[in-house]
Every structure is written in C-alpha cells, then in structure tokens.
Specification:
The protein is an alpha+beta fold. The protein folds into two domains: about 30 residues; about 250 residues, no CATH class.
C-alpha cells in the first residue's frame, strides 16, 4: 500500500509540474502589461508556435487615443528625407513610431490611398486593400481613431469624415476574422490593430510567420484584438518607443525571397510613419 501511495504521489507531482510548465509557456498565459505612461502600456508575448528563427515573441504597445494623439508623417509632406522610426521620433518629438504602410518604387508614395488633412501622399484608392485606418476626425461626434473595413463602409465616406486616412492590406476583419489564406511565404511583421475597447495597437514580431498563421496567433492572444492591417514586413518593418526610462528599438529581418536570414540589426529609412504624441 505504501508503495502504491508513493507512486501516486510521484505521478501527481509530475502532472503538477507539467501543468506549471504548460501554463508558463506560450500565449496561453496572460503577459503582464507594463505601464509606460497614462494610457500607454507595453506587453511581450512568447508565442507557442515556434518560428524558424528568433525568439518567437510578439511585442504590443497599447495606446488610448483619448489621451494620445495619433499622427501621420510623410516625407512627401514634410519635404524632408526618409528616416528611421527612431529618427522620426526624435525629429518630430514623438513617443512611439511604426511604419505607415508599404511604399511604392518612388520611395515616397504609400501603395494604398493616403491623405493627411490637405496633403495627398497617394490619391489613388487601391481596389484590393480593404483596411482603412482613420483618425483626426473632421467633425464632432466621431471616434478619435478607427480601423474601418471597405466592405462595411465606403472609403469615400471615411475620407469625408476624417482628416487622416491610410489604406492598407487587411489582415483581420472586425470582429476578429482571419482573412488570409495559407501560403508558404513568411516574414517579420509590423501591424496596426485595434482592440474591442477602441485602443490603438502597435504590434511587432521579428520572428517570421505566414500571415495566415500570424493572424491566428494574434486572435488567440489575450489582447482583445478585433481588427488589424498590415503595415510592413521583412527588414523594413520596425517599431520604436522612447518615454522616460523605457526604450524599445525593434527591426525586422527575415522575408522569403528577399532577405532570408535573421541578421538585420538596423532600422531602415522609410518615407511614411504613424506616431503618437501626448495630447
């Protein structure tokens, strides 16, 4: 009987240890949000689906648009050069900056429609880009920030209601639908998202995934994500944050058929960025 009881205790202990390991690994465990300032938080999530390179970690910056102003900066509007996200931050006194979208061969124009007040970076509406980020409302009573879907609301109406409009590839359709089919290509990724409370989410992952898998991962994360758009992939994807003692400087690397390694350690100059500043 003593031997049976001892074996039972050992088996129970093994199960308990395994449970602790499973709960502490992957995104099933909620990561602790770290406050940076009022309305500004950062979290890092270790992903259970291991990538082929890197640490398989996703960084999320959560921003309350009632407390932080969202800005679009473009070299085509400022008349300056392309800068890294860190340089955009320092030059224009921003707190956090990410890519604003993929750009064309002129190294200035967004691939999708892009306007900031009276400045048109790209006046052409892309027929296949269904995600539209809008902020700086043109009239009272509108949300300060919203990611719309062109299947639900016409981009012409969005342009009329908001001073800043950015059209990009859709990743996740409200209220949390993965809209990418599976593919073999993988890359580092930076994303603009929104949660169910209306917060702006800057999302970055250096480790490469297919966008179908990455979307599933984001939906499963405990961040209440409802929609998201693709900003950039590979070595040009980047994120920078500097506030007080907190500093994050993140660059992408791997991209299938372009930069198939994890060796990039620099931020690349880019023409268009989304940044935040205290209201």
């Amino acid at each position: 009987m003593a031997k049976i009881f001892s074996s039972y205790l050992r088996a129970s202990l093994q199960v308990f240890i395994c449970t602790l390991i499973l709960c502490s690994d992957g995104y099933s465990q909620k990561s602790q949000w770290t406050p940076v300032a009022d309305g500004l938080e950062v979290a890092h999530f270790k992903v259970g689906r291991t990538s082929i390179v890197g640490d398989s970690t996703i960084t999320v910056i959560r921003i309350d648009p009632a407390q932080w102003g969202v800005r679009l900066l473009s070299a085509s509007e400022t008349g300056g050069n392309n800068y890294t996200t860190k340089q955009w931050c320092e030059k224009y006194h921003l707190v956090a900056v990410v890519n604003a979208g993929m750009f064309q061969a002129d190294y200035k124009s967004n691939v999708g429609y892009m306007k900031n007040y009276h400045h048109l970076n790209n006046p052409n509406i892309h027929p296949e880009y269904n995600s539209i980020a809008a902020f700086n409302p043109a009239k009272s009573g509108l949300l300060p920030f919203r990611i719309f879907d062109s299947e639900d609301k016409s981009i012409q109406e969005i342009i009329k209601n908001y001073n800043t409009v950015i059209q990009n590839l859709r990743l996740i359709k409200r209220p949390g639908e993965n809209r990418w089919s599976q593919q073999s290509k993988i890359w580092s990724e930076v994303v603009l998202g929104q949660d169910k409370s209306g917060n702006v989410l800057f999302i970055f992952c250096r480790s490469p995934y297919s966008m179908h898998d990455f979307n599933d991962i984001l939906i499963e994360l405990p961040i209440d994500l409802v929609c998201a758009q693709h900003l950039e992939g590979g070595p040009e994807a980047q994120l920078y944050l500097k506030y007080g003692d907190t500093e994050l400087e993140m660059s992408g690397s791997y991209e299938t058929n372009f930069f198939e390694n994890d060796e990039n350690i620099k931020l690349w100059p880019i023409p268009n960025v989304i940044g935040i500043a205290k209201k």
